[in-house]
Amino acid sequence: MTNSLSEKAVGAQNNEPAIWTLAAEPCRGTVRSMEPVLPETLAERLFSGDSFAFGFGMQRPRQEWFGWDDPRQETLRDRHHWLSQEPQRHLAWTDEATPVLLEALALFPDAPFPKESSPHPDPRPDGLLKSLSLNWEPDLLLLRRDASGQFRLVAGAVCFPSAWDLREKLGKTVDAIHADVPTLNATLGARIRAFLDRLQPGQTFERDNWGLTAHGERNAHPDRNLPRLTDDATLDTTWLRLEHQAFRALPNSGGLLFAIHLTVHPLERVLQAPGARNQLATQLRSMPEAIAAYKGILPARDALVRQLESR
Ligand code: HEM
Q1: pLDDT tens-digit series, residues 288-302
Q2: Ligand 1 mean position to 223 CA, how many Å?
Q3: Around Cβ 251, how many Cβ atoms within 10 Å?
Q4: How many CB atoms lie within 10 A of CB 302?
Q5: Atom of ligand 1 nearest to the CA of 291
Q6: Contact by Cβ (8 Å): 104, 217
Q7: Which atom of ligand 1 lies nearest, measured to the CA of 163?
């Protein structure tokens, strides 16, 4: 089985929109469920520290990323929906992506699609992207070294972006991709480059990003114009977005797989953990204004801090 797509027409060229019809049923892939994320433990994991700083926070994985046994249908249904409704918004590739995609597919020894040894029935980048992204819970980004040795984004399937557009990032280096994030390149850029250069094949590392939103939607693509946090935000109408990320070097293609497993949680639930209210208040109060604006928190910051400190 490859996936439940039936293809009407596929844009093989970069940026050419692909038009697909998908079978009515969501795919029956057998991807392993990611470990459940317990909101009660999130505050300690995400809001520690005396003041806010973008953290490198790289560590050995706490969960199995590349297993293949038990699908979480709700997430896959959501992926299926966005990939069928808005494929040109959520999928992007260049022609250089094929070797990296084939190697990424081979990370799943139990997966029901062909491995490197048996040629894929649709070895074009878009066919390979569909095989993986319709069956695996995380969003995925594939990078490849250019002639100067820098990683550039060559393909992606991103159904649940946190307010950024995949199409604007295709072909760019990691530094250029991060250029819109205030202070990130200045504070962590060199460390990110060194980490990616030294990542050993066979090793997986992971880290987290978090954000706050006024909605519980997984897909926060900017084109959706979802409600934004405002100065009348309340704790019980605010959501925590957790991006759990994995990095894996792909030795044969010289590529890199960057996976993002997104979960959303009612903030009130996360705040039930002891000390969580104070910890989040500290993070929000100390967040530099430009970063709070980038994260969409600035208009709501004072209101949220007041409520966090009032109980
Ligand atoms: C290797 C270590 C990396 C670290 C420590 C890191 C860190 C970060 C941080 C802190 C943010 C801001 C998130 C927020 O607060 O909302 C960010 C944004 C982002 N990162 Fe990374 N990142 C890394 C690697 C990568 C790689 C390899 C890619 C590959 C494409 C990538 C793509 C992005 C994108 C697309 C955004 C959103 C940018 C936007 O809003 O325009 N990152 N990253």
Answers
A1: 999 999 999 999 999
A2: 20
A3: 10
A4: 13
A5: 15
A6: no
A7: 40
Q: Which of 145, 151, 160, 181 to mutate to test the pocket of ligand 1 (most atoms within 8 A of CB)?
A: 181
Residue pLDDT, tens place only, 243-280: 999 999 999 999 999 999 999 999 999 999 999 999 99
Find tokens 């050419």 and name the residue.
16
Position in ligand 1 atom list of the atom nearest CA 57 = 5
DSSP letter string, 152-166:
EEEEEE-SS-BS--H
- 60 CA to middle of ligand 1, Å? 18
Contact 213, 239 (CB under 8 A): yes
Q: How far is the CA of 141 from the centre of ligand 1 (A)?
A: 11
Q: Whose CA is nearest to atom 32 of ligand 1?
A: 177
DSSP 266: E
Radius of gyration of the chain (CA): 20
Tell me which residue has its CA closest to atom 26 in ligand 1.
174
Using the mean position of ligand 1's atoms as its centre, give its distance from the Cα of residue 42 in Å.
20
Residues with CB under 6 A from ligand 1: 54, 56, 141, 143, 153, 162, 164, 169, 174, 177-178, 180-181, 184, 188, 192, 195-196, 209, 211, 247, 258, 295
Structure tokens at 111: 């997966």
- What dihedral angle (degrees, nearest 10) is formed by the CA atoms of 172, 253, 208, 74? 100
Please give the model's pTM, rounded to 2 decimal places. Answer: 0.89
Among 46, 170, 178, 196, residue to substitute to test ligand 1 (most atoms within 8 Å of Cβ): 178
| Residues 133, 91 contacting (CB under 8 angstroms) | yes
Quick one: what percent of the chain has pLDDT higher than 90?
Answer: 68
Burial 182-209 (b: 16+ CB within 10 A, else e): bebbeebeeebbeebeebeeeebbbebb
Q: Which helix (H) or strand (E) holds 244?
A: strand 239-250
Mapping DSSP to helix (H, G, I), strand (E, B) and coil, where does residue 193 land? Answer: helix
